[in-house]
């Protein structure tokens, strides 16, 4: 694995060394249950409290507004289902978009089967939601809207603040799957105007299986589980102390990286260099996603005439992804690219490069050379 270059940071990120160091004691000596009152429990509870503050610091919110979950899939389910049920007396209409992650789309589909009505707004050719469409979709029965901060496949950043203003003006709850934007883009919940935000540690150099839902004070939410009353009863279950410590440390590290402008100074230039090297040596490649308003680590390209699964199989020293990681075994076009109106024959050639904090220019050179060579070889084969 050491000689494979990792460029799939939207699927997951490696654990940062400082995050691992922070977690280790809570996997060994400090194994207590944070609900226990003896010293083992108190040590665990102190660590959870510290992590809650670290997460809250990144989100510019109060620690009481953080609910720890098992990751963003659960946070999306809890936020959307929990609010849909809690506001059921006011209405049953939800608004989202066709380019959301399946954790949001499938939650809404399930609610639709239970009598809720979801409007799935189209996105533009870059994958962006139009705030005018959001305003036009509101009905007297709308209680909730959910729009992702940044798209996990094409990196396009939604106009979250404008959508939040619309939601506030109409008195409805605004949930955002903020997984890909938090820790890289503006992360202050008050600045963004979001009422509920899903985050997950493994996209920000923390461990898998731990995330959080930010819930603005005063937002009603029904729990999905019932049990021991942890997390104010909103998400009961014994706390994953080591994971929570890892999430807190990852949030701290992101704040430091944001101060140092790591994305702007390092990740963005690497991504642009990779794009430039590929574009200058290959014909017929097309960028998916917004040319400017997209995540600095994202490069989603169509290589016309080369099916993405064939390209991936040919790339021996590079780990990248076709569309979203969850779809990596499927040859059908990604729902995001379809939503953007990319023709099917082009969409099935899409490859997502996700650059991150630990990539280097040497790696970019190697990846560019291997991609150019493989695309040329596959195109030549298809002409034979
Ligand atoms: C935008 C988005 N939402 C939700 C998820 C699911 O997150 P988790 O793996 O923490 O459940 C992902 C991860 O693929 C994602 O990229």
Brief characterization of the structure:
With 384 residues, the protein is α/β, with parallel strands linked by helices. Bound molecules: pyridoxal-5'-phosphate (PLP).
Order of helices and strands: EHHEHEHEHEHEHEEHHEEHEHHEH
Cα separation of the termini: 34 Å
Helix and strand composition category: alpha/beta
- Name of the level-1 CATH class of the largest domain: Alpha Beta
Label the CATH architecture of the largest domain: 3-Layer(aba) Sandwich
Number of helices: 13
- Rg over CA atoms: 21 Å
Globally, the shape reads: globular
The proportion of strand residues reads 5-15%
CATH fold description of the largest domain: Aspartate Aminotransferase, domain 2
Mean pLDDT: 95
Topology:
Layout (H helix, E strand, L loop, with lengths): L4 E2 L10 H11 L11 H21 L6 E4 L2 H15 L6 E5 L4 H12 L3 E5 L9 H7 L4 E5 L13 H10 L3 E5 L11 H4 L3 E5 L10 E5 L25 H19 L2 H20 L3 E4 L9 E6 L4 H7 L3 E2 L15 H5 L4 H4 L2 E5 L6 H23 L1
Helix pairs in contact: 1-8, 2-8, 3-4, 9-13
Bound molecules: pyridoxal-5'-phosphate.
The site of pyridoxal-5'-phosphate has 12 residues, from helix 3.
């Amino acid at each position: 694995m050491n000689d494979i270059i990792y460029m799939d940071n939207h699927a997951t990120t490696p654990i940062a060394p400082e995050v691992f160091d922070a977690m280790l004691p809570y996997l060994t000596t400090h194994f207590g249950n944070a609900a226990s009152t003896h010293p083992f429990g108190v040590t665990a509870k102190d660590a959870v409290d510290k992590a809650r503050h670290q997460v809250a610091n990144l989100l510019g919110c109060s620690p009481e507004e953080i609910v720890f979950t098992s990751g963003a899939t659960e946070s999306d389910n809890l936020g959307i289902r929990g609010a849909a049920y809690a506001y059921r007396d006011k209405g049953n209409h939800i608004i989202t978009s066709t380019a959301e992650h399946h954790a949001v789309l499938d939650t809404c589909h399930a609610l639709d089967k239970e009598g809720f009505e979801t409007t799935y707004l189209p996105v533009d050719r870059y994958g962006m939601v139009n705030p005018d469409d959001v305003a036009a979709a509101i009905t007297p029965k709308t209680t909730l809207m959910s729009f992702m901060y940044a798209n996990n496949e094409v990196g396009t950043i939604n106009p979250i603040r404008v959508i939040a203003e619309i939601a506030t003006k109409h008195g409805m709850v605004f949930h955002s799957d903020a997984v890909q934007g938090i820790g890289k883009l503006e992360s202050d919940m008050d600045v963004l105007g979001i009422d509920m935000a899903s985050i997950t540690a493994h996209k920000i150099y923390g461990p898998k299986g731990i995330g959080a839902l930010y819930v603005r004070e005063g937002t009603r939410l029904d729990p999905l589980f019932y049990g021991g009353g942890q997390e104010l009863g909103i998400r009961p279950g014994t706390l994953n102390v080591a994971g929570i410590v890892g999430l807190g440390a990852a949030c701290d590290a992101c704040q430091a990286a944001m101060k140092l402008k790591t994305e702007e100074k390092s990740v963005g230039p690497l991504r642009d260099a990779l794009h430039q090297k590929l574009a200058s040596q290959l014909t017929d490649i097309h960028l998916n996603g917004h040319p400017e308003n997209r995540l600095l680590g994202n490069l989603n390209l169509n290589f016309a005439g080369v099916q993405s699964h064939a390209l991936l199989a040919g790339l021996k020293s590079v780990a990248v992804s076709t569309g979203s990681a969850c779809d990596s075994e499927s040859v059908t076009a990604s729902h995001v690219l379809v939503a953007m109106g990319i023709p099917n024959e082009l969409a099935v050639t899409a490859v997502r490069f996700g650059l991150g904090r630990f990539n280097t220019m040497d790696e970019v050179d190697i990846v560019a050379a291997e991609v150019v060579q493989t695309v040329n070889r596959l195109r030549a084969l298809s002409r034979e």
